[in-house]
Amino acid sequence: MRFTAIGDSFTEGVGDELPDGTVRGWADLVAQGWARSRGADIAYANFAIRGKLVWPIVHQQLEAALALGPTHLSFNGGGNDMLRPRTSITHIADAFTHVLRRCDEEGVTLILLSGANPSAQLPMGRLIQRRGDLMSAAVIERMGGRGDVVQALNWPDAELSRPAYWSEDRLHMNARGHHRVAARVLTALGQSVPEGWWSLPELPDAVRLRRAEYMRDHLGPWVRRRLTGTSSGDGREPKYGIWTTVAAPV
Fold this sequence. Notes:
The structure is a single chain. By secondary structure, this protein is of the alpha/beta class. It has a single domain, classed as 3-Layer(aba) Sandwich (Rossmann fold), CATH 3.40.50.1110. It has eight helices and six strands, in the order βααβαβααβαβααβ. It has a six-stranded mixed β-sheet with strand order 5-4-3-1-2-6. The longest helix is centred in the middle third of the chain and has 19 residues, at 125-143. The chain is globular, with a radius of gyration of 17 Å.
């Protein structure tokens, strides 16, 4: 199996930081769980970069990922677009149609994900909920009931919306959240899920910032990036832009 992932911070793994400061995330975990379930090594690449809008993901990552000759390609995007009120839902859904068409042309199985729903803990949560519902419905409609598209839909998962699955910035899942998403993807692939991944114990160091601290440390910097036209992903390279081998446990 040759698995490659494209997307934004959700797929890069932001929020699931390892002790050395690198990020892991659900896609890395899927590669590990897939190798373990099959008892065979997996070739894995991950082109996702935080802060990317959906069409830059497509333009900058899709063809590079397909050029590696994967058997499976995962795609999620639109979360950053959704936070911009003037963004067209149709414009977002068009990107998914394009990715599906290119996967069909290359004979690659598409793994389609929807992101988890952070709206309950964010300012303007009702607006985000409404736009997320519309985007999810539009993307599913574009798939046209295709049974050969592997679907791992996280947006409807009410459990995953609970604060215990999220990092202190309230936009990115913590390790517990990423493991739950990985469990859903592995299940959709027909693979076994390591024990406990669906609901790891709550993290003892989970931080819940007071409103003033949250505004200062997270919302404020996000607003400044919007005003200056910069992105948290500016200057970053994919963490796995070529194949890396994920070994099956001996």
